[in-house]
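Morning, I've got a small favour to ask if you have a moment. Here's the protein in full, and shout if anything looks odd to you:
***
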Amino acid sequence: MSVLGEMGVHITKALASMASAMVIDEKVLDVCLKEICTALLQADVNVKQVMGLRSGIKKRVNIEQLAAGLNKQRVIEKAVFDELCDMLDSGIDPKKLELKKGKAAVVMFVGLQGSGKTTTCTKYAYHYKKKGFKPALVCADTFRAGAFDQLKQNATKAQIPFYGSYKETDPAIISQQGVARFREEGCNLIIVDTSGRHKQEASLFEEMRQVAAAVCPDLVIFVMDGSIGQAAFDQAKAFKDSVEVGAVIITKMDGHAKGGGALSAVGATKSPIIFLGTGEHMDQFEAFETKRFVQRLLGKGDVTGLMDKIQDIIPEDKQPELLDTISKGNVTMRVLKDMFESVLEMGPMSQMMAMIPGFNSSMMPQGNDSNSQMMIKRYITIIESMTDKEMDISNVKIFAEPSRVSRLSRGSGRPPHEVHALLESYKHYFKYATQAIKAANLPKGARARRAR
C-alpha cells in the first residue's frame, strides 16, 4: 500500500470512528482531528499547514452552534474534504492547461537531475498520443551522458518520433532544429526535454532561459521528485521565479514516505499540479485534479477517472452496451469476465480500484499489483470453465451447490476456496460497478454519445 493510500485509510478511519460515538461533541471532534493531523504529519506535510487545516476545520464546524437534526458527522466530513482541497489547490483550473487538438503546442520540461524528467516526457507524450495527438520528443539535454540514448529508447518503445544530436553541444540550437523539423512533419505536440543539474545552479537557470527563448514554449512543465517532501516548496518556488513555470508534475509517488509533503508544498507555491508519476511503467501516470484526488484519498472513489479509463480500454463498439448492462444491474459472469480482461489492461490495479466508490487501498490484497493481476487471471480461468448457462445468469445462488463448485474447481485446475473467492468478488463488483455507473449520472443515451 502506498504511503498516500495509508494516509487516506487513517483519515477515513478517524472519520468513521465518529459513527460509534453516542454524541458527537467537541471532545469527539478533537480526537478525530488529532488522528487526521497525525496521519498528515507522518506523510511529511508541513506542521504549519497541518495546524492551519486543523483550525480551518474548527472554524467550519462549530459543534455548539450546529442546528439540531443536522448530521454532524457529514458536516465534519465535508469540512475535512474542503480543507484538504484548499491545502492542495493552486487556484488555477487544470482544464485551462489541457492541450487543445486544433493548435500545435510546444511544451518544455525542466527540473533537477534524477527527478525522472526524461521518463516523464515520454509518459506525457504517450498520454496525449492515446488521446489522438501526434507527439514528438526533442532531447536538448547535452549535460548528462546517456540522456539522448535514454530518450531514444523510451520513445522507440512508445512509438513516438524523436530528435537529438551526438555532435551539437548547444541545447538551444538542438531544440530549435528539433521543433522546426517536427513542425514541418505536422506534429501537434512537441516536447522539449532540457538538461538537469544536481542542484539549483545559476548555469541551469541560464540554460533554461536560452532554450525557452529559442523555442518559445506554450507551456513550461517543472518535473519534481516527490521523495523530497517539504523541500519541494523551495525548489518549486526557485524554478517558478526563474522561468515561467505553468504546471508541475510530481514523480516517484509510488510509496515514498514524503509524498504528502511534496503535494502540499507545491500547493503552497500555487503552482498547478497536472500529473503524478506513480511508477516506472508508461501507464503509471495519473492526471491530477484536486477534488478527484481527495475523493479517492478518502475512499469516495473517482467515477470520472474510472469512466475515462474504461473508455480508453474497452472497444468503442462495446462501450454503450457494457455501460448500459452494468447500469441496469445485469452483471453476469460473462460481463464480469469482460470487465476483468479490461481491468488487466487499465494499468496498476491499486490505482484503478481506488476510483470505485466504496473501495480503498486496505481492501486490496496486500503485496504488489502483480499479486492482484494474478488473482484476476485465476478468476478468468474459473469463469472460462463454466457452462453457457452459468456464464449468462445473474443469480449466483446456483453456485451454492457443492457439486457445481467441485466441478468448476476441477475444470479450472484451481482450488475450491478460489471458486468461493470469485463468487464473493462477483457480489462486490456487481454492487460497486452498478454504483459507479449510476454515480456518473449519465442521462439516457449519454452512454452511447460518451463512447463516440
